[in-house]
UniProtKB/TrEMBL annotation:
Domain IFT80 second beta-propeller: 16-206
UniProt record, GO biological process: cilium assembly
Protein name per the record: Intraflagellar transport protein 80 homolog
Record-annotated IFT80/172/WDR35 TPR domain positions: 234-377
GO cellular component, one term: cilium
Gene3D superfamilies found in the cross-reference section: 1.25.40.470
Amino acid sequence: MELTPSPPTLSLSLLKGRLVSTVKYPRGSVASLSVLTVSISVDTIAIRDKKEEKVVHLFDVASGKELREGKPLCHKVEIVSLSLSQSGPGSQRQLAFLDQNHDLFLTLVRETTPTQTYQTVSLGGMVGSIAWNDSTNMLAAVTDGRLAVWYHPLVAFTNKDLLPQTLVRQEDSNFKKSAQLVQFVGNCCVLRRDDGALITTSVSPFPAILHQYAASSKWDAATKLCRFVKDPALWACLAGMATNARDLNTAEVAYAAVNEIDKVHYIAEIKALPSAECRNAELALFSHRPQHAEAIYLQAGMVYKAIQLNTDLFNWERALQLALKHKTHVDTVLAFREKHLTELGSKETLAKFIECQGKVKIDWDTIRSKIENEENRGLQ
């Protein structure tokens, strides 16, 4: 695709010349845009704001409308370059960007969860240049005189604990801080040294194959590949991919291979849950997304589970808010809050709880009976 400036809009067309979309650039002159401040994928356009360099506008290619409910991405520091991932579905489209401090960040362009929370995660510092792979969602960067490749950066949004295990680094005298990544095609990275010479280096071909298997849901083939290669980084990628695809059997095998025994036990507990809603909510918790888990419970009508989730996380105000809104288990929240404060030897300080004290009778026998009824109903 080709991006043509025609102030105050940008015209996106195919190489044959057919117009695909027209984007209204909100601020500044489109003539000032450069390869560092604009990135295009098959479904998204990212443009750094000319006047406010901490801001990135994200547009949908098909409609030309701004994404994220019309709210741009706002960073704390000026952004110097950005790049969109080039493969995978739109729901997994990622934007990598470098700021003025040479810190590398990653964010999802679209958010498909009910909570619509847009996360931005840090991948590292001292980064000079970045490049996405042309056919898979692998990300390469020149950082501190080394070539770093994240085999599966998307795992930062599903299980950040795995992210360091999916990163491999290569050292070479050619990878100086001034070297710039030109492209990342197949399993080859092309860099340009400060003297203008082009250098080609290769990375393992197996992560790309694993990405293809995962995209086709060929989990048995993916597991066999990991067993053949015996690379911990590949197993970590498979664990993240399988978790994101909710293939718990494959995820269990992959986590065992990287010695994440606690996660193996947790996945086994998730598999034993009676309903799909409970499994999906627990998987969201497993991925450190409690708001998403709560939304799943509420959509399924499991109000008590949503309340229990917040009490387990000591999110007392949200638990009471849900109980009051749905007019259920108010006494349960107050009782567990009182028990928590007693164990800490503290007094109540939250205004909402102080307001409810004395208005609601706390009877542990009644509360236990209600909880038991909720659990029995969940098993049906």
